[in-house]
Amino acid sequence: MRLIIKSLFKRWLSNLLILLQITISLIFFMISYSNYQGTVERYHTVKDILKNNFNTTIMIDVDEDDGDKIMHFSEQLEKNGITRFSGYKNSWLESESFENILYDSLELYNNNSWIKELHVSSGEVFSPKSFSPKYCNGSIQNPYSVLVGCNIAEHYHLNIGDTFCDINQINYKIIGILTNSEIWFVDNITDGNFISLDNQFVVARPISSESILTYYCQTSHGTQPEEAGNIVESLAQKNDIRLSTCYLPEILEQKYKTALSGNFLWISFSIFVLVMITIATASLMSANIYTRLKEIGIKKAVGYSISMILWQFSGETFLIECFAFLIMLCATTFYLTTNHQLINSVIIKQEYLSVKMILYGFLIIVIQWIPSFLVVLYHVKRLQPNELIGASCII
Questions:
Q1: What is the DSSP letter of 272?
Q2: pLDDT tens profile 341-378
Q3: What is the pLDDT of residues 71-93, one digit of tens each?
Q4: Range list of β-strands (E), 138-199
Q5: N or C of the chain: less Cβ packing under 10 Å?
Q6: Alpha-carbon dihedral of residues 271, 276, 279, 280, nearest 10 degrees?
Q7: Alpha-carbon distances, residue 266 vs 240, 274, 324, 349 (angstroms)
Q8: How many angstroms separate the CA atoms of 300 and 386, rounded?
Q9: In the β-sheet with 342-343, what is the strand arrangement from edge to edge?
Q10: What is the Cα Rg of the chain in Å?
């Protein structure tokens, strides 16, 4: 091993170039594969969150000019078999009670527990009364119910029952502290991206003219999604509301296939790069042997066996591959960790570096090393000491 390391440092420049090309190809492949794996995981995460409601959910996009009509519209939907109608939006909350820091907030409209349940470490979650303007309207007597992220609650030593008002003099009452690592969807469910609620407020609001433009509804038992979509569009037409409906599984499946297609192209290209780098590395090893003919000849002349020479030359390549593998792990981990950082509490990407992926990476360096080993084996076996010492042999 000492002889291999000494030989590597003796020819450090050429070995450094080999190391760089192998490392870059490995990093490119691992990041491409992690993006692919992240797409698959996000798709299944959404399905797992929605569970039994996945195949009965319809997404409704309301025209911006018709948002003030949605409250009456939601009441009509309930009378026509659309039992659950709710939505959410990402907003912000600023209060003197929290040093006038602009915190992100998640506003839930009309009880979203059927979409995704929130869990609290203390207190209670929202009840139907939390979304009723009769009981919660932002006044001092009837403040909005709010769940607080665990980090905010710990920082300000908040307790259940504490009240505060924002800069617009809207009042809130804390009814629960969210558990650690609680998440929610970002812009809409089909994006597959999530927000962390650790540093957020979650506010229950009734549907009003200031509500959002994207809603979700669930069909009642026995009602087909296509039939429910027709009911929604028919009622919208009667109420002069411009909207569009889409069946959630269909739009999610479409986005999933599109994302997979793009990721597959990158993975295919990264595999092509790996193959090219493998061929280039084998060629460089062949050239390396040619420049070291005299050294090989002397080693054979003084009693080195073919296996010992093979161990040195192939060991050099394998050690470079291992160094490249370790650098790839560090670089890929850093990249994925950086992309997991929260920007305004939004998780931009969700790539996954699993044990299986690490094993794939190690398998790749072994496969890359095999052609170099075969090249070394081929050339070393056909060399003769008397020819090598005189450097008269042409490979």
A1: H
A2: 444 444 544 445 677 778 888 899 899 889 888 888 88
A3: 778 778 877 777 788 888 888 99
A4: 144-148, 163-165, 171-178, 183-185, 194-196
A5: N
A6: -140
A7: 46, 12, 21, 17
A8: 10
A9: 183-185, 194-196, 346-347, 342-343
A10: 31
Query: What does the angle CA 50 – CA 55 – CA 59 come to, to the nearest 5 degrees?
Result: 80
pLDDT at 85: 82
CA dihedral 163, 166, 172, 175 (to 10 degrees): -70
Residue 28: which of 365, 292, 269, 307 has the closest Cα?
269
d(CA 54, CA 250): 11
Q: Which residues pair with 346 in a beta bridge?
A: 195, 343
Buried/exposed code over 70-96 (b: 16+ C-beta within 10 A; e: otherwise) = beebbebbeeeebebbbbbebeebebe
Q: Is the pTM of this model over 0.85?
A: no
Looking up tokens 């905010």 gives 152
Contact 243, 233 (CB under 8 A): yes
DSSP character for 317?
H
Q: Which two tokens stand for residue 95?
A: 């209060």
DSSP string covering 40-106: HHHHHHHHHHHGGGGGGEEEEEE-GGGGGGHHHHHHHHHHTTEEEEEEEEEEEE--GGGTT--EEEE
User: Pick from 4, 14, 11: which is nearest to 312 by CA?
Assistant: 4
User: What's the whole-number average pLDDT of the chain?
Assistant: 82
The token duo for 385 is 């000491």
| Distances in whole angstroms, Cα of residue 176 to Cα of each of 49, 179, 182, 343, 345 | 21, 9, 13, 25, 19
Residue that is written with structure tokens 């005299």 in the block: 294
115's tokens: 């979409």
